[in-house]
Amino acid sequence: MTRPLQNRRILLVIGGGIAAYKALDLIRRLRERGAQVRPLLTKGAQEFVTPLAAAALAGERAHTDLFDRAEEADIGHIKLARDADAIVVAPATASLMARMATGEASDLAATVLLATTLPILIAPAMNVRMWQHPATRRNLATLKGDGVHVVGPNDGAMAEAEFGPGRLAEPAEIADAVEAMLAGDDAGSGFGFLAGRPQNPARPLAGRRVLVTSGPTHEPIDPVRYLANRSSGRQGHAIAAAAAAAGAEVTLVSGPVQIPDPAGVRVIAVETARAMLAAVETALPADIAVFTAAVGDWRPASVGANKIKKDGGDPAPLVLVENPDILATIAARSSDRPTLVVGFAAETDDVLANARRKIARKGCDLLVANDVSASGGVMGGLTNTVHLVGRDGSVETWPTLDKDEVGRRLVARFAALLPA
Ligand code: C5P
């Protein structure tokens, strides 16, 4: 079996957050996979874990201070920035991300990160409000634009008894992401601007336009009521984020959702299926169109101008009419049909048989089928188990993965399917 991290040298920058303790486990996971790990702790990190613990687990000296004379004589920050195959920043705090984004070389970690041309993976971890702050979103978009790879953060309970995105990705996930980054970057540096190559392998969709639909639709019954579904928008948003990280110019047409807009993506918010179709048509042309939205199949035939009242008798029957099929409409366009049209099939039973029928009916090139029966917890949940169904009826089943990871892998697949 090949071990992608065998003998790869990782400089692990540990930032100053409560999640720093997980960086110790990450050292172990990376070493289990054959990597050599050199730890570098910021001043803040040393409030949470000791250089001694990191050094003991890494079997290497831990670096800490920019102005350590002995260290400068011995290895020096420029050498640290070069003498590895990749740099991993975990946890990447809001402050460290800000310093990276602005190119501020105020301590050893930031100096090394500024001086390097190596591929960089950051694993952000911070309070959910800090993560959602526009400043952090801007910094994240800047870093992604510079070719920095990102894993997580995950949703979950936080140290401050809050819930939401901000938890450090699990050490095994980070190790997977390092493997993926090194596999993708074997052709050279992660930085296109430094390597001077026309196409950065970390940004396979540079120069491409990607259109994604996401979330549910709301179909009004009257001014205060609507028909909707349980879609959270997580999968569609994750695909849009991954496409942006891969260098694409992304338009995300989203129904009403409770999650933040992905960084670096143009978002058009809509409510109804008809508004979604209109927004999608306006956003064309695109190289890739991914229809992830859980579009309401029906809408009330007429919308009450005022709130419909109870009048003591039986309720008036709700008459429904069918909504336009956005995916089928776009897949059937003759002049500006996107090169790759991808549909989703949320099924509660007979997933594959239904998906095979659907790909033909909708006219798309690829269908991503998933089981959304209540027991799976996919609708509104954080993970997804998908099957890729091809036009020839072929099926590829992926393991259950975090929706962000599904998004990244799908985007890598889409990029591979596009003609050069
Ligand atoms: O027919 P079904 O709703 O299962 O098809 C799912 C796929 O079709 C998804 O890609 C969804 O975004 C898309 N769709 C659409 N417009 C509709 C219904 C579904 O784009 N009205």
From TrEMBL:
As its record notes, the protein acts as a catalyst of: (R)-4'-phosphopantothenate + L-cysteine + CTP = N-[(R)-4-phosphopantothenoyl]-L-cysteine + CMP + diphosphate + H(+); N-[(R)-4-phosphopantothenoyl]-L-cysteine + H(+) = (R)-4'-phosphopantetheine + CO2
Q: What biological function has been recorded for the protein in this entry?
A: Catalyzes two steps in the biosynthesis of coenzyme A. In the first step cysteine is conjugated to 4'-phosphopantothenate to form 4-phosphopantothenoylcysteine, in the latter compound is decarboxylated to form 4'-phosphopantotheine. Catalyzes two sequential steps in the biosynthesis of coenzyme A. In the first step cysteine is conjugated to 4'-phosphopantothenate to form 4-phosphopantothenoylcysteine. In the second step the latter compound is decarboxylated to form 4'-phosphopantotheine.
Q: How is the cofactor bound?
A: Binds 1 FMN per subunit.
Q: Which cofactor does it need?
A: Mg(2+); FMN
Please give the superkingdom of this protein's source. Bacteria
Similarity comment text for this entry? In the C-terminal section; belongs to the PPC synthetase family.
Give the keywords, sorted.
Decarboxylase, Flavoprotein, FMN, Ligase, Lyase, Magnesium, Metal-binding, Multifunctional enzyme
Region of interest: Phosphopantothenate--cysteine ligase? 210-420
User: Where is region (Phosphopantothenoylcysteine decarboxylase) located?
Assistant: 1-209
Where's the Flavoprotein domain? 9-180
One protein family per Pfam: Flavoprotein
Native organism is Methylobacterium adhaesivum
Protein name from the UniProt record? Coenzyme A biosynthesis bifunctional protein CoaBC
- Gene Ontology terms, MF aspect: phosphopantothenate--cysteine ligase activity; phosphopantothenoylcysteine decarboxylase activity
Q: Which residues bind CTP?
A: 297, 307, 324-327, 344, 358, 362
Residues covered by the DNA/pantothenate metabolism flavoprotein C-terminal domain? 205-415
